[in-house]
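Hey, resending since the last one bounced:
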Amino acid sequence: MENMKTIKQLKRQQRLGISPPSAPTLAGTAPALGTIDTSNVDAGTLQLAQQLANQIVAEQQQIQILAASGRVFTRFDAVNDIIDNQTETVTAGLWSGNIGSLTTYFTSSTQTNSQRRYYVDTFDGDPSVTGSAVQFALAYGNANGSGSSNYGNADSPSKAIYAQYRQLLLNANDTRFTTAGSGSTDSIYVVNFKRNRLKERLDAGNFELPLAPMSASADTNGTGSNVEITGSNPSFGTIRLIDDSSISTGTVTESGRVFNIVSGSINNGVFSSSDPVYYGLAYPDYGTLVLDGKMLDQKLQFQTNTTSNSEGNNHFRLFHSVSGSAATASLGFQARNSEKVASTHYFVRVKNAEYNFSNNPSYVTGSDGLINQSTFIGDPKAYITTVGLYNNAQELLAVAKLSKPLLKSFQREALIRVKLDF
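The structure tokens again:
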């Protein structure tokens, strides 16, 4: 009952703001938690205990140093060391060797007559010489089948070509290519880039197709390189064609983005941008250029053969026009490809005490395993040349090579970024 009374009194004092009397204390001071009371320990014992503690700490530090120095791998911190899902657009020259301008054009006499009736492959060098490769193909299409012989078949090559690209590039309900130059057109010339050079797509705004004017005497069935066009009307000059992506966002169809092909150059842009001269349509996602036959007849004197059941070989007219631009005006067919590359970045962090030794046999001497270079004793050095990426099963997945060996020692740390594209 006395305790209950005391508690009530304390609570009443708290409500009234009266501080309770201080509690009595024992003589002396109790040691704080986590410490050792050394008041009754002699100085010699304290000294021995301190030496033992220092020795234990030193041994632990040495173990950590040896573990770090002898480390053969380090696990990545998935949060701080790895950045994934990074994408960037990469462009390169479209032609073999990643060059951006093509100035030599060859056709091959080994292409069969059946193939030549539909298209002509264009090489960057003499097809008989090892190393030359097909860069692009040229074809002529006519919705009515004009300009080629059907040889008794239902469809002529020109009709088949037109139908093929109509199905590939136009919307389902469209039956004709329609250009801003002449409207609906039955006559088209096609430039189709080699797929393995195109990669993902043609880089819009980065192609320039030069065309020389034709003449009535131009050979439309021959093979050769950089054929010079003679006898053409001097009022018809060599032109250069680009897309209008610099002044227009284009349109999006079932076949992807579509831009107009106009007169202009990569360096100077669209000629007369307020009133462009239109020559056809560019489909960068398919790597295909469709040129309006009517405009080529009008502007470059192509004189396209549109006679029914007639072997016109019109696609060779386009080949000689492209080739002739290099021969007469020293112009090159410029083009670049484009692709989106997904990347993961791995940050390899090498601290000062890590990877300072090498497992190369020349690093040590004999079977005793002593360090070969006496200057490395106590101050080892190594040169990092390669970073290997392994999975949890210790299987090597990728190797990254440094541009030059990287010196590593106790006085040096390193941060190496490994970029993995896929």
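The chain is about 20% helix and 30% strand.

Sorry for the duplicate.
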